[in-house]
Write a structure and sequence with these properties.
A hairpin with a 7-residue loop joins strand 5 and strand 6. The protein is built from 14 helices and six strands. The chain has two domains: about 100 residues; about 110 residues, no CATH class. The protein is elongated. The longest helix is centred in the C-terminal third of the chain and has 17 residues. The strands form three sheets. It has a two-stranded antiparallel sheet with strand order 1-2.
Length: about 240
């Protein structure tokens, strides 16, 4: 059984020279609150298991503003300012309200190398948030029944449709609406089954895997040594490699 996959970091370097320009801009524009924001963003990204921040609805901004001890308009202004200065990715922020800081990702790479794992990449984020996919065809090709069959194949469990369609079906539909594909579900299931804590505690259920925060967490970390790989057309049986 592989060790538990760690998706957080507990520290990050303070690049004094590299960060000086953007910190000076923030301090001049917003005072100490601007200076502090940069580190609060990095701290949040380090501990949320994603390494980026996404504002999914109108409540997320005021919640974070209270967390950071800022006014909502002030936080929004600061994030727009960072976007203008190209510190956070412009397209991801303006189109999907995702805070992605490439320089932060660069400085935590060494921690993932020591773990023998791969950190999330910009290409993965673009694929997830910006590249359009045919939602109708995804729904037709990958149903909850297909997911449950895949779930049982990878976890070795024998979950039945009865009951789980009602419990986990709505969460599954939310993920499909976010353009996740069969390959994404396979990645998440393989990563979840590598987590010794979850396996020994019998926490892995269709409902648990389909929870958006859990799905995102295990989707964004790729282990260097895959446990199981399968391929085949869902709904018509599976071919194991």
């Amino acid at each position: 059984m592989g060790r538990k996959i760690k998706t957080t970091v507990t520290s990050f370097p303070h690049k004094i020279v590299e960060d000086k320009r953007i910190l000076d801009h923030l301090t001049i524009q917003y005072g100490n609150d601007g200076y502090a924001l940069l580190f609060r963003l990095r701290e949040k990204m380090s501990l949320n298991g994603l390494h980026y921040i996404v504002f999914k609805d109108a409540l997320d901004l005021p919640i974070m503003a209270r967390e950071f001890h800022l006014e909502q308009d002030e936080l929004k202004s600061m994030l727009d300012f960072l976007c203008e200065k190209k510190y956070i990715d412009k397209k991801l922020w303006e189109v999907k309200r995702v805070v992605w800081i490439q320089s932060y990702i660069d400085v935590i790479q060494s921690q993932y190398k020591r773990r023998g794992a791969k950190c999330i990449t910009y290409e993965q984020i673009v694929e997830k948030f910006l590249k359009p996919k045919k939602r109708a065809s995804l729904r037709a090709e990958f149903t909850f029944e297909d997911f449950l069959t895949l779930f049982n194949q990878i976890t070795g469990q024998k979950r039945q449709l009865k009951g789980w369609r009602t419990k986990a079906g709505p969460k599954f539909k939310q993920l499909i609406k976010q353009n996740y594909t069969m390959a994404d579900f396979k990645t998440v299931l393989n990563n979840v089954t590598r987590d010794e804590f979850l396996v020994k505690g019998n926490y892995i259920t269709p409902y648990y895997v389909c929870k958006p925060d859990i799905f995102d967490k295990f989707h964004n970390v790729q282990s260097a040594e895959p446990k199981k790989v399968w391929q085949g057309k869902v709904g018509n049986g599976f071919n194991r490699r």
